Amino acid sequence: xxxxxxxxxxxxxxxxxxxxxxxxxxxxxxxxxxxxxxxxxxxxxxxxxxxxxxxxxxxxxxxxxxxxxxxxxxxxxxxxxxxxxxxxxxxxxxxxxxxxxxxxxxxxxxxxxxxxxxxxxxxxxxxxxxxxxxxxxxxxxxxxxxxxxxxxxxxxxxxxxxxxxxxxxxxxxxxxxxxxxxxxxxxxxxxxxxxxxxxxxxxxxxxxxxxxxxxxxxxxxxxxxxxxxxxxxxxxxxxx
Length: 240
Description:
There is one protein chain. By secondary structure, the protein is an alpha/beta fold. It contains 9 helices and 9 strands. Strands 3-2-1-7-8-9 form a 6-stranded parallel β-sheet, sandwiched between helices.
């Protein structure tokens, strides 16, 4: 039995799956990750990406932050790939209980997933810091300099920047889903960004599946390890 067949059997025998994904889930949709050869960390800017995406930089260099944010963080033409669509199908079939994602692109919802926990927020949501009015990503893209609400307030993306804490309620829900899961599929993440990476410590089952192109420090803990692209793997799974 090959690895895909093993995963197929695991999925067929449960209706309590939780999926935890990172940037590798969206790379096949044309959205670069941070740490691969072509990722943001290997491109050259005046400041490192983790500095430009920090709370301090946002506060002290707001206009430069938005220039970088518009250029490198919003991919309005990106479409869901096989992984996103398969996860939505698994949820609709009653097998997948939740998608927990480190991504901010909104592609899981675009593919049809309903229960999506966005640990790091979403580029699709932006709010006025003064009156809390909502703005979509088009508003940010079409603005120049610092986006401003009609009330005069600054519009901030609903994304978690470096130095900012994750939403407590979202983390609690994620922990709960993982702790109760029979099967945990972790995919497309290097598992080095905390506190998100620590979520897998709450899993108590014996069906931990890791799908990732590169090795991670957690590989030895996996019951099933598949080193391939997420879309390539999940695209071969059938739902009976």
